[in-house]
Amino acid sequence: MIGKSLSELNLRLRQLLLFPLCLGIIAVITACENPGTTSHARKVAILQDKPQEWADALKTGFIEELQAQGFKLGEEITVIPRAAAGDPQALTTIADSFAKGDYTLIYSLGTQSTQEIFSRTKTKPIIFGAVTDPVKAGFFNRNLKQPLGNITGTQDLWPYPAQFDLIKTLLPNVKKIGIVYNSSEVNSQVSVEYIKAECQKRGIQLEERTITSESEVQLAISALLNQNIDLFFVPADNTAQTSAPTIIALCQQKKVPVFTGISGIVELGALATVGTNYTELGKVNARQAAEILRGKQARDVPVSIADKGDIYINLKAARSLGISVPDEIVKKSFKVIQ
Asked: Are the beta carbons of 58 and 129 closer than 8 angstroms?
């Protein structure tokens, strides 16, 4: 009996000694999971469908400008970015967690991400970045002054007339342009309508191929190249943009230049663009966020429209294609890739 009592006593003493140690370990783990944050910091979520140059630039500009607006990251606000790696189910899961979580604000990058979160909450403040047509996407009724929820953001309307002016300057004899797009994306539908209008206005034949996934891109591009296109245009389509390296490589084999509205794709080897500066657009979104964090409702903050662009030119791509770029274009360019 005495031996048993002593054993029980020793066990109890070990439990009492280990309990504070366990609490300490739990505290360390919790601190590591949330480094540099305080319990009163408001949470700002960033929802991204897949890694893309324009979306990453939006996110960079957004975070930089939040700090420039005087918000201390980790103290006043905690920014929590999540990307779905192009997986629709993952995007749904992340959107669900953001809609149900204690987030002060949700920043969604692009049309697909915004549609996903907007379908889950109409009351939580949402700021969208670079949506091609917020009305057709279902966020507004008839015009940008009639939000269908607590939402605002930036409309990314590519400067198509300026883009086609540049195409005609660099390729004055262009007769046939090819495009590939995912017809299920609202942003793609809008982009293609603008491209069609510009081609029709300038007497250019447009060859189209629709796809449903990235796995279909190579076959679609090969079919277009067999149609002897003079230029390939990457539209405002997420599937095509993600496949830009494949598109450029296939077109280079046939000496066909690639044009786009995304500056990052020019850096990958496309010929040129008159494109949106997405880092600056992200900063516009951050200024909208600052108004909301200081008390405004998202629905009361006006949508900002980006309808102008900067020239980006890839001289290395031009040389490989035998295209002469006028000095005037080079001088006016925001960025020249040598």
From this structure: yes
